[in-house]
Specification:
3 copies of one chain form a homotrimer.
Chain A lengths: L3 H8 L6 H6 L3 E6 L11 E5 L2 E7 L5 E5 L13 E2 L4 E2 L6 E2 L5 E3 L4 H4 L2 H4 L6 E2 L1 E4 L2 E5 L13 H4 L5 E8 L3 H8 L23 H7 L4 E6 L3 E10 L2 E10 L3 E3 L11 E8 L5 E8 L7 H9 L7 E6 L7 E6 L11 H6 L8 H9 L25 H18 L18 E5 L4 H8 L9
Chain lengths: 445, 445, 445
């Protein structure tokens, strides 16, 4: 449970809000590199932290993430021409490069050849970086820019990773909380027939073993590790997930999962009630196999099956989004017969299952859809990781208001943070973490 | 005409509002029994008086109407599993019975076997009752619960009655006002060719006789009787309608109507601008015939032709609604040629005709669509029943604010209130009411 | 750039606003005459300046523009019967004539034959006038009514003009500003291949000559003339556009344009964020040819291709609108390949091009979509006509608040104002205007 004030603080992300400013201290995923694959190609409309932006690759291959409107009279740059190292507004031909500089004002004789005047006509542009198949953006003050994003999944070669993104119709936090909520796996993602893993989901294994895991949280510089212990016969089944502030996860694969790699999600706020979920799947020991890529493409895990389209959310520009085929408008294609015999939800696909419970959570009486009313929750011991994440976020946001920068944004530990799951006879989280610190071979149990 | 303050008072129905509290002193129709016909079947999402609710029948056949969200973290219970006498949340498996009690918390070892902790984890559940093919709910304070709903139409055997519900896109009151507005029948529902009653509507009869009826209102404990007198040759055509607080009607059949029974509507607020209309048609002298059931199913009267679907209204959960095929989005399928020669509106079906004028009434300059601006009305003598209903509702709502409970909610007279219409030579309402008090045979003229 | 206060003042048009009152001093286009062509035909729902209205032609051929709701209880008159010189409400049969007088109250015996009571039951009706294929309405105080609309295009015979209207999803001003923005033609409407004028647009001509025209503004009683001079070899290419307060334009044809006439637009606010654009095309020297009418009907200029349908905007009644087929929901059917080689935007049609940049302009951080944030603009010398229009509008609106009526509304000069474009060797706007004052033959260069 959270006070309404704290809930507001955690969920509001516009310019000037405490949480919005905290997000602006981190490098954030913006779009997929493949969306702006070609030089001078079609720009992508996006919104991050309530700001309307445009992503494009210029003629030299550089990617820009700039404000979505022309400095002249506010026309949408999306309809402009991406040519000769800049986007030229369709209305009067003003041109801006990836750094937001105004490089041409062709409709005004006195300005077009006057660089000094043009210098005052730039638009906001944010530093970008490409890694892990993702275009990253840093939207904070230049002098506070942390090192470029560096995670295990951004370090591996392209052949070993896969990135995707899609639209979630909720505030970022109620999506992100699902990442560090180990116990839900035993229910939401449970298969009823343990021999049937048609969906590739074998949460049944976990649930059959123990639906009430003991969760231990260990602080780290970049966030914390969440360690779930489940009984499994004479052994324990351990899962270590990583939470990297403010909203990155690293999740271990399920034990019998056909996918042999690891993965996680990042929850990038579009605005207060919509989120772009980024997913990354990767192997550290070699290329993703064709089967693994096919599994990812199938939509049973992450990403879900989506359709890329223009959507209008709120009052700003329309944005280019990957909209899941199964969504709240079609009850996530729930099959009540399937729910009786095949899996716990009757909903196909892990992300669909997640969204079915996350997108429709109870709003506050006067609040908007998409922000759950955390003042009416009843949290248990099994929610300790969620409680920890909120406590850390609140502390970081309040610290920042006092001028204390978040060290998590610069933590070198992010590059080596790793999720793991395995059986072990030890009953101690500390002992297990020692074991977990062993070399990578042990992880592939 | 009403002051804006009085209009606000009558139309706002959320928790804590004067009218909302008055509604919470009455048993209200919630869903149709047939929607939750089978045990452990799919729950139904509904909203009443701005509260998101879930209706379901459990394994023992009991019907629950409970709050729509899990006590744990607010996940929507609709996606849960209705099994073994309770709904189990899909997110973490918490389970709630029809009384809202939390009967299982399987994801937390310390809580799951601790009934004392679980006792604090219940969700709101409202008392229910089934009668007349309808699941009723009482949403007020337990100690104020009135006797269970008891009307003539809930007393007759199932074979003698039919219940239905559908979505009206307006505040409850501007729908309910149509019930007690005798004069509109002579216009809105008029057939131009008196020999053509293809629609089964014979308002032409009424209009031909006298479009300006004299209305008399007689107070009753449960509300009032509205008595309309129309000239018809040397006789008078009398219609007695019943208004039962806060929004139940009993309406006599039209004289030449093929349907031989009686009926009425109840207007249950979803929120301030949407309403679920419940209709009941019944005979007191024997089963509805196949022809009568076919007439009801045809959609020419009540209910209209509808399609059951999920709709998103406002900020809460999506709800399961019966959406009329003819609606404001398609101009109620108006046929302007038909309007010239066949009937007064060019719109097919009595309820379509009602909704065409009620759903699009003038909103206040800064008010929402769906609430008519009653400060700009010009009421006449023919509106005396409407004026009476408002006056009574205002008095009851204000009395309740002072602690005076509405006796109408407990009135035994509701069980015998009856609508009637017939020809009579008397010109006196009092004399006619004496005649009306005769046994039932007289009613079937 | 404009202060936020000034932007609010210019863009808000409801009753009681400064700009709304200014608009109410002018005759405004309401609907096309052809929409209410036949006597007693289907009424048209419209909204002007945030007021819900109904237009209809009565049995005597008179056109009424009246408030959209019945005086009795606010039912929508659209569903009523247009018959015997008045609209009869479908609910209770009350009837109103084109002057808003209540001429029948058939459902109340005491009122229906009492003209004195009925006199108090009228609805708002605004004076109308038909000219130029348009039904005009005056919504201001009766004693301030200016002379009836009198423009060159309303004076010519029907055979010489064409009028149309459609929906623009933006505030009126950002549409109207496009009219007096000569330099955008060189970009937004530019064809890349000057030999290909498949679209009938030859902005390439202009751009090729000179994309940075020198703009001169000359005050007139009715508004101002905007004079754009572009170099073209040893000559100058001159274009004189007229701005007639508050939002009428007269635009010269492009030099090589196949259409041999002239035209302009009027921007009539529906509400603060939607506009009905009226376009008029006309010749003063003779009938429009079949080819010219086909060109207009084709949708490449004005109007765009549209579909007439019912749309729901905001909180009032649905309205009957001509909705463009290419709109923000389908990215104006932009073809990025076409943008590389055929024309500057990749969007087909002049109005589509205009709307693509105007409808999606940057809203204020907390403002609604459809009103551009003018506090973040950077205006140049090329924007002098826009600056002038705003200055004049602000002055007129503020004057009116002080009781000074706008003389532009009554200016006789509006009848002779004319747009022109031609080559000339003079470099002086004054000299060119002298030349422009010559008889009409010179205009057809």
């Amino acid at each position: 449970m959270l006070s309404q004030d704290d809930n507001e603080l955690l969920t509001r992300v516009g310019p000037g809000t405490a949480m919005g400013e905290l997000f602006r201290r981190f490098w954030l995923p913006a779009v997929l590199s493949e969306e702006v694959k070609e030089r001078d190609s079609v720009p992508v409309r996006l919104r991050i932290l309530c700001e309307d932006l445009l992503a494009f690759r210029d003629s030299a291959g550089r990617v820009g993430v700039v404000e979505a409107y022309c400095a002249h009279r506010g026309a949408p740059l999306f309809f402009g021409r991406n040519e000769d190292c800049g986007v030229r507004c369709a209305y009067h031909g003003w041109k801006f490069d990836v750094d937001g500089q105004c490089v041409d004002v062709p409709n005004d004789a006195r300005v077009k050849d006057n660089p000094r005047v043009r210098a005052a006509l730039g638009i906001t542009a944010y530093p970008t970086h490409e890694a892990g198949g993702v275009v990253w953006v840093y939207m904070g003050p230049k002098e506070r820019m942390p090192p470029r994003p560096d995670f295990e999944w951004t370090r591996v070669p392209e052949s070993q990773s896969h990135a995707s993104r899609w639209l979630q119709n909720s505030n970022w936090l109620q999506g992100a909380e699902g990442e560090i909520d180990s116990s839900h796996i035993s229910f939401l993602h449970q298969e009823l027939d343990p021999n049937d893993s048609a969906l590739g989901v074998t949460g049944a294994d976990l649930a059959g073993a123990d639906g009430a895991p003991l969760i231990t949280v260990k602080d780290t510089e970049y966030g914390f590790s969440s360690i779930a212990r489940r009984r499994r016969g004479d052994n324990y089944f351990w899962r270590v997930s990583q939470w990297l502030a403010p909203m990155f996860s690293l999740i271990p694969r399920a034990p019998a999962q056909t996918f042999n790699g690891s993965g996680g999600r990042a929850w990038v706020p579009i605005d207060d009630t919509h989120t772009t979920t980024f997913a990354y799947s990767f192997r550290i020991d070699g290329p993703l196999s064709a089967d693994e890529r096919a599994l990812i493409a199938g939509g049973a895990h992450f990403p879900p099956r989506t359709k890329r389209m223009v959507v209008q959310l709120g009052q700003g520009q329309p944005i280019d989004a990957f909209v899941p085929e199964a969504n709240i408008g079609n009850d996530y294609l729930i099959d009540r017969q399937m729910q009786k015999t095949v899996n716990f939800t009757g909903i196909w696909g892990v992300n669909q299952q997640d969204r079915s419970v996350q997108e429709g959570m109870r709003p506050a009486p006067t609040g908007p859809r998409g922000i759950v009313d955390r003042s009416r929750e009843h949290l248990m011991g099994s929610d300790i990781a969620i409680v920890t994440a909120r406590r850390k976020l609140l502390a970081m946001a309040r610290d920042l208001q006092k001028g204390i920068e978040p060290i998590a944004a610069s933590s070198a530990g992010r590059a080596t943070a790793r999720a793991i799951s395995s059986l072990s006879s030890t009953s101690s989280a500390d002992d297990y973490l020692t074991e977990y610190a062993k070399p990578i071979e042990n992880e592939e149990t």
